[in-house]
């Protein structure tokens, strides 16, 4: 019997785009599916800065509970929002082929403010704030919460020069403004641009249904990035960046740990054959910690 697969998703336009992508892929294989929208804590409180409300898991907790309670069969997340340690009883069923990984600056009029001693930039990401302050220490950073459309509307309404977004989020729902530029110098969040599907560990039907959706290259690269994040004991509230890609059967990895104010930065670049890829993220993080990263991590924890 072809059992209906209930797909849990947040209610934002981007989350629904991701869930419908999974829905289409499953139905192309002959499965019957239905979307089940669920509000997350991160969607309800749009005022408090993410770093003040314990961002790790804030966009996934409600879906995880619905999954464990049997209200849904699978949940679809932006992988960068998912804690590196999944809740007991939940497993990663598939990682879809990755989209754009870069961050994007959406600006009001032109980019002349980048040379100004005073400019106002909005973002809710601790990582983006730290990286921006390192490059533009004279600028003022402002908190910006909400889904993609809400943040674009707030940028238009406020007296800000620009705001930082993930390229993938804006492009997937077709709202990337013409007045935007990719920030090639900004290393992305671990797993940025990737979509993950999770299910209950004992649910063989859903796990097998999702298995063909798994992109092996994306799964490997994002695992390395998340290993780096986990080994540094970081989460969404820490300024940790990581990006891995494959070229000529070689894993090429870049990682960064930055202080909250952007004044301290530790970077690492690693290359390894695919046969030795499993430990790249962990070994890179251990090297960062040995270079003084442990002190930066301690400072960030104390600031919290």
Distinctive features:
304 residues, D-Maltodextrin-Binding Protein, domain 2, Double Stranded RNA Binding Domain, 5-stranded mixed sheet, 9 helices, 33% helix, globular
Order of strands, widest sheet: 2-1-3-10-4
User: How many β strands by DSSP?
Assistant: 13
Main beta-sheet strand count, sense and barrel state: 5 strands, mixed
Poorly predicted regions are: 42-56
What does this entry look like structurally?
By secondary structure, the protein is of the alpha/beta class. It has 3 domains: 4-96 and 195-214, D-Maltodextrin-Binding Protein, domain 2 (3-Layer(aba) Sandwich); 103-182, D-Maltodextrin-Binding Protein, domain 2, CATH 3.40.190.10; 227-303, 2-Layer Sandwich (Double Stranded RNA Binding Domain), CATH 3.30.160. Helices cover 33% and strands 24% of the residues. The protein has helices at 13-28, 41-44, 61-68, 126-135, 148-157, 167-172, 204-210, 216-231, 280-303, and strands at 4-9, 32-37, 74-78, 90-95, 103-107, 120-122, 140-142, 162-166, 180-182, 195-200, 240-247, 250-258, 265-273. The strands form 3 sheets. Strands 2-1-3-10-4 form a 5-stranded mixed sheet, with helices on both faces. The chain has a 5-stranded mixed sheet with strand order 7-6-8-5-9, sandwiched between helices. Strands 11-12-13 form a 3-stranded antiparallel sheet. The chain starts with a strand and ends with a helix. Mean pLDDT is 91; it is low at 42-56.
């Amino acid at each position: 019997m072809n059992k209906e697969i209930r797909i849990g998703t947040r209610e934002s336009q981007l989350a629904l785009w991701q869930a419908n992508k999974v829905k289409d892929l499953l139905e192309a294989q002959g499965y019957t599916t239905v979307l089940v929208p669920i509000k997350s804590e991160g969607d309800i409180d749009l005022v408090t800065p993410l770093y003040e409300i314990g961002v790790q898991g804030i966009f996934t907790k409600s879906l995880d509970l619905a999954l464990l309670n049997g209200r849904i069969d699978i949940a679809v997340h932006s992988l960068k929002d998912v804690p590196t340690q999944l809740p007991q009883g939940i497993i990663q069923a598939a990682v879809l082929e990755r989209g754009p990984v870069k961050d994007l600056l959406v600006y009001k009029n032109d980019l002349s403010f980048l040379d100004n001693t005073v400019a106002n930039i909005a973002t809710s990401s601790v990582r983006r704030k730290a990286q921006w302050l390192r490059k533009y220490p004279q600028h003022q950073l402002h908190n910006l919460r909400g889904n993609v459309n809400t943040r674009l509307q707030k940028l238009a309404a406020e007296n800000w020069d620009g705001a930082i977004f993930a390229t993938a989020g804006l492009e997937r729902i077709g709202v990337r403004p013409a007045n935007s530029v990719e920030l090639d110098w900004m290393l992305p969040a671990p797993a940025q641009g990737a979509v993950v599907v999770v299910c209950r560990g004992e649910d063989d039907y859903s796990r097998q249904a999702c298995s063909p959706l798994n992109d092996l290259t994306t799964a490997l690269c994002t695992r390395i990035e998340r290993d780096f994040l986990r080994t540094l004991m970081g989460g969404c509230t820490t300024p940790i960046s990581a990006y891995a890609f494959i070229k000529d059967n070689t894993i090429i990895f870049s990682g960064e740990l930055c202080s909250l104010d952007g004044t301290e930065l530790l970077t690492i670049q690693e290359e390894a054959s695919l046969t030795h890829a499993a430990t790249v993220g962990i070994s890179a993080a251990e090297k960062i910690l040995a270079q003084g990263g442990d002190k930066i991590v301690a400072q960030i924890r104390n600031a919290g």
